[in-house]
Amino acid sequence: MTESELLNHLRKNPFILAPMAGITDHAFRTFMKRHKAGIVVTELISSDGLEYGSERTQRLMSFDESQRPVGLQLFGDDPEILGRAARQCEEKGADFVDLNFGCPVPKVVKKGAGSAVLKDLDQLKRILAGVKRAVNIPVTIKIRTGWEQTSRNADKVCQVAHDEGITWVAIHGRTRAQGYAGLADWDYIQAVKAASPLPVLGNGDIHTAEQAVERLTTSGCDGVLIGRGCLKNPNIFAQALALHSQTLAQATPIDRLFDELHEHLQDHCDDRLVGLQLKKFASWYSAGYPGASNFRKIIFQTQRTEEILVTAKNFFCSMNENLQQDTSQEAFLMGGHG
Ligand SMILES: Cc1cc2nc3c(=O)[nH]c(=O)nc-3n(C[C@H](O)[C@H](O)[C@H](O)COP(=O)(O)O)c2cc1C
Fold this sequence. Notes:
Elements: H1 3-12, E1 15-17, H2 26-34, E2 40-46, H3 47-51, H4 55-59, E3 70-75, H5 79-92, E4 96-101, H6 106-109, H7 121-134, E5 139-144, H8 154-163, E6 169-172, H9 186-195, E7 200-203, H10 209-219, E8 223-226, H11 229-232, H12 236-244, H13 254-268, H14 271-285, H15 292-301, H16 305-317
Parallel strand pairs: 1-8, 2-3, 3-4, 4-5, 5-6, 6-7, 7-8
Helix pairs in contact: 2-13, 5-7, 7-8, 10-12, 13-14, 13-16, 14-16
This protein binds flavin mononucleotide (FMN).
């Protein structure tokens, strides 16, 4: 896909599924795409793993036509290795390559990858140049606002990215030092976007469709990434797109969503994993509904996949969406790779 084709997709639907390791796998991306995520990105993939031919790493690259436009996200510290990994992505038919410069996890930053690259803009430049040289498809990057509060430099990163021909910069509005504490700083994202010579996507703490549209409009960003918000409300993309384009939202009832998710999981996972994933999603979706904690206890004790499915569908069928309380202030998945 060319850069202008990719940006065209972004203009049509600026609500993007944020990469989440262990969550936005093949099945979940297909599922969210079907429910109107504009663009989807894989979880982070180790460029070293691809270099050494790891089968497990290669499996993370799998996607299908229904997911397009789909980006494969890479992390690493070596421009040459990242370049070769990006070429593998291109050969696989990826629409674009996304580079992870936001991961705060010690194991990753110790090696000079993830958000560690934000501390060294010369190294960032070398990596971007190496990857751009290796592929013809668009290259995008995902960053944090900076390493720590006193050295926030997303504005400078945007300048380097622009000079190196990067297509967009997605900014998770926290520093590396913050981890997942505090709130994403959307004022900062807005200021960076206003001065940025290339498209900027904002990210962090979008819990509802209304917030997604409000963040998009107020920040002036070219798109927004939604991560944890879609785990509690899988209809968030469809609702946000409808609000944005002033059409009627077609929210799918949660019990039907479960059947669909089950189908996608069956296509890609063994039975044990299907059951495990269903339990995880059921427990996330139940947040804020009356009786949710009891439901979670029951579902995690249930063993057979069919039973998990029936238990979850019975629970959600007995609920009305209006009963769901706002749980956005509660700590939820406070760790991840970006
Ligand atoms: C469980 C989990 C895994 C994550 N994995 C990745 C990842 O692989 N790559 C990445 O760039 N960001 C990753 N992130 C960060 C998210 O993409 C996003 O930046 C962050 O969750 C803030 O957005 P949100 O508030 O909408 O969730 C992860 C986040 C979580 C919670």
